[in-house]
């Protein structure tokens, strides 16, 4: 085994790289994007401005942001390139399945996934031509994320796809593509548009979470970014990760009234049930995003009215936070605990919630992918080792002699 050390189950306490993008202090409950505290960005920035920060390392000037926003919207809002593809799914296909496959499909459509482009290690040259191609793919993937999400939403309703007029923000264009039913002068409710933009910003990146690691593991073979993003999207889909916002609502619906919370928590302690939206691999005091989500929820409920599940969620939160079982295991609410209540209040269908996590997370996935492609010394393929604990050497036995 030549001195190999098995990192604990699930990469516990294992650093796979050095990064300049996102800083998390799990004990102090700190989250910063390129050094800026998440609380300040949520208050003063927008998702797309924060996307620029995560990708390129500094807050954009007015002209830099204008170019970035124009490119993202220009490369993103058309749906013709994936119309047939998205309509090929069954009417009840889970939108995450559509989104995951559509990302991989895009690469073939634009021909930027073809082997010839990869042959010369295009991405790792870092020269002007390759940086230009990388940026165009980044613009397209961020722009397309909202369009493909809206298409997955409308496929199920048998609705036509719509293209937002110019002048809408990134999040406003998304809401237009989701909700526009041909009414004159559609504009999204500004409070709801702002709330969704804050949620996008909060979900933009989170250092080496399972899906970002998947993107880098996949991208390390120098495959195109569309395929790497599709792999990350598949990882995010799971209920232990981005699928938790959907699982929280299903959990709250199954609990029903607040008076059922104690019995539910007992079942969790007996490991018969999972307390979704609680716990985190890194945060051992609190997830700083959860406080901002909670505040945003109050803003949204002023417009939409309170969700009847809120009472149960608050009763569950209060009971778990003072229960020895959860305190001992340092379990606190994470970003998914309240976000689903907002999406529900805004009228999104339950199985669409993980899509609302994946759309903004495309930014973080691409920021890490770009950082890896341009790293000093080029890209090393990610190929971990194992400790073999299986059978020793043995000889083949013909089937007639086996008992
Ligand atoms: C996200 O990594 C990221 O940064 C992710 C994310 C991001 O932005 O990318 O922050 C987004 O995915 C947030 C997490 C969303 N998932 C959920 O809410 C699902 C419920 N949470 C758990 O599945 C769990 O807490 C995880 C998956 C989030 C973390 O799991 P870990 O770090 O592997 O922790 P663990 O399973 O080793 O738990 C330690 C102990 C265990 O008890 P013991 O076996 O030691 O007795 O805590 C218990 C676990 O059983 N535990 C829970 C629990 N989470 C952990 N018990 C009840 N309910 C829970 N939610």
Automatic annotation (TrEMBL):
<protein>
    <recommendedName>
        <fullName>Citrate synthase</fullName>
    </recommendedName>
</protein>
<dbReference type="GO" id="GO:0032787">
    <property type="term" value="P:monocarboxylic acid metabolic process"/>
</dbReference>
<dbReference type="GO" id="GO:0006099">
    <property type="term" value="P:tricarboxylic acid cycle"/>
</dbReference>
<dbReference type="GO" id="GO:0046912">
    <property type="term" value="F:acyltransferase activity, acyl groups converted into alkyl on transfer"/>
</dbReference>
<comment type="pathway">
    <text>Carbohydrate metabolism.</text>
</comment>
<feature type="active site">
    <location>
        <position position="336"/>
    </location>
</feature>
<comment type="similarity">
    <text>Belongs to the citrate synthase family.</text>
</comment>
<keyword id="KW-0808">Transferase</keyword>
<feature type="active site">
    <location>
        <position position="280"/>
    </location>
</feature>
<keyword id="KW-0816">Tricarboxylic acid cycle</keyword>
